[in-house]
Specification:
Layout lengths: L2 H24 L1 H8 L3 H25 L5 H21 L3 H29 L5 H29 L3 H21 L11 H6 L4 H22 L1 H9 L3 H29 L1 H21 L4 H29 L4 H29 L5 H38 L1
Length: 396
Amino acid sequence: MSTNGKIYILAMISFLVGTSQYVISGILDKIANQLGISIEAAGQLITVYSLIYAIGTPILMALFAKMERRKLLLFSLSVFIVGNLMAVIAPGYSLFMVARIVMALSAGVTVVTVLSLAAKIAQPNKKASSIATVVMGFTASLIIGVPIGRFVASAYDWKLVFLGVAIFVLLALVVIIKTIPKTHGDQPIPLLQQIGMFKQPKIALALSITFFLMSGYGIVFTYLSPYLVQTTGMSDHVLSFALLILGIASLIGSKFGGFSADKWGITLTLKRGLVLNILSIILLTFITSSINTVIIILTLWSFAGWSSGATQQFNLATISPKSSDVLLGLNQSMMQLGFAFGAAIGGIAVSQISISSITWMGSIPVIISLIITFVLSQYLMTEKKARQSVGTQIRA
């Protein structure tokens, strides 16, 4: 199989993992109704998932650092299947939460592993595009997984979504064995040393961009379905269509982010994406009367958010190639911590203010992310000039 074919296999894995993660947002109200809990309590399923994912991923990747990567991928996906089956049979909220924890731990290891494999097997001049293709799997879960999940939950039972994911992942295990080559792991880096990477300003700044970007995304996306139903009066069918459009925008955005980072550079791509993200979500605050206009604005927001996300993956994968697994793992942790923080803030906003407040509140962390991007840009320019100055002195 060609290298591109293998990359798309990895993207398929990220699609299945992404579906299991993101579908909750699309069926949040259905879960709340069936389990007899509030929307805010259902939202905690997302918060806890993200927290466990964020905390568990670097620890587990440190423990499994030396394990051959295909073997690690097969193992993590097997545990992921167990978590999804637990979600199917869970009779109530508590056990369903346990299932989400199992899924989160295995998903974190899976995502870092597929991103690492993509970076390692891709051609040198196509690493950003290859990583963007894997990220595209997550966006495909928004395009296909979340809208289908909403349809299944409306027509049948939301638990069937997790059963379907488990079956497809089981089939994927066979495909992985036949197509993905064995790849050695990295040298193990102790957890304290991983945390110590935050002492490097450019790494700390880059990871901060991820955290605040995902915080803004988490505030809005977690409660997006009930927000659209309550503020615009969308029906289930229109909501499924809207989620499909957002998913397509995410797909295009993630691919554009990789293309733009390769062609015009990381910093410029980030700045443009963040500005568009902020403008679109602020605009949504003032426009809710027209469903069509709302969908157009959310399309721009989704495109911008995912173009920035793909760029960040590439950024962290190239800062220190020898520690790419570690940095990708830390970036995944920051993504999930940001999403968890955003979901928690969104829950407070929904309960204490109103569900319509999630739009303007979601713009605040992204503004912070944009400011940090300018700081990082200035730091990198200063660092580059310092290296050039040292090189000139050595030659002299």
